[in-house]
Amino acid sequence: MGKFIDLTSADGFVFPAYVAEPAGTPKAAVVVLQEIFGVNSHIRSVADGYAAAGYLAVAPATFHRVRPGVDIGYTDADMKTGMELKAAVEALPAPGVLPDVQAAIHHAAKSTGGKVGIVGYCWGGLLTWRAACTLSGLSAAVPYYGGGMTAGDEPARKPACPVLAHFGNQDHWIPLDTVEAFKKAQPGVEVHVYDANHGFNCDQRGSYNEAAAKLAKERTLAFLAQHLA
């Protein structure tokens, strides 16, 4: 359903993004931010899913500044590689990879002429939260189990658009007490906690939880429909 195109960041950096188009005229656009495994088959299928729901979906390759062409799976070795790549990106001088996310937002807005939302998973959830607080042109943001967004200075950020956040109560990467603290720090953010583990939305992972993924997707689509109309 989709294809890769090249986007250009504000500093002139060129990077690929997977773009999935709906069958008819897009009702709005959604930027989809990858996990630590690249714009792999799962993230492409997620983008395809938003396209099937009527949105133009843009999934930027947020590892491209440190390693081009990342497309890995979910083995222990892949996990180690993904963690190393995430650390490398997080170590980039500020603002890091956020200008690439901004370029994806601009492309989405220009392509549709409509509103833009952003959805991210795992590390992409953290980037989604940061995007909601620091980037322009967003009308809604939905981080899924954003690793790090409940820690350090992240909960003190101020989102500039409505935010819906999904977490799992069995997620050992994001302790439940930090989720509760985040909720108290961000009363304006709609937070849902599922009886599920980290990565519950990904049907290629052992932690996949069909019921939680279905409910979270329903809530996400309703949230996007509300704020991107």
Entry summary:
By secondary structure, the chain is α/β, with parallel strands linked by helices. The chain has helices at 41-52, 76-90, 98-112, 123-134, 176-185, 210-228; strands at 2-8, 14-20, 28-33, 55-60, 116-121, 140-144, 164-168, 190-194.
What value does the Rg take, in angstroms? 16 Å
Percentage of residues in DSSP E strands? 15-25%
Following the backbone from N to C, one meets helices and strands in this order, namely EEEHEHHEHEEHEH
Label the CATH architecture: 3-Layer(aba) Sandwich
Average of the residue pLDDT scores: 97
Helix/sheet category:
alpha/beta
| Shape label | globular
CATH structural fold name: Rossmann fold
Distance between the ends: 24 Å
Count of helical segments?
Answer: 6
List keywords for this structure.
6 helices, Rossmann fold, 8 strands, two-stranded parallel sheet, alpha/beta, 6-stranded mixed sheet
Structure description:
The chain has a single domain, classed as 3-Layer(aba) Sandwich (Rossmann fold). It is globular and about 40 Å long. Strands 1-2-4-3-5-6 form a six-stranded mixed β-sheet, with helices on both faces. The model has no long low-confidence stretch (mean pLDDT 97). The chain is an alpha/beta fold. The chain has helices spanning 41-52, 76-90, 98-112, 123-134, 176-185, 210-228; strands spanning 2-8, 14-20, 28-33, 55-60, 116-121, 140-144, 164-168, 190-194. Strand 7, helix 5 (176-185) and strand 8 (190-194) form a beta-alpha-beta unit.
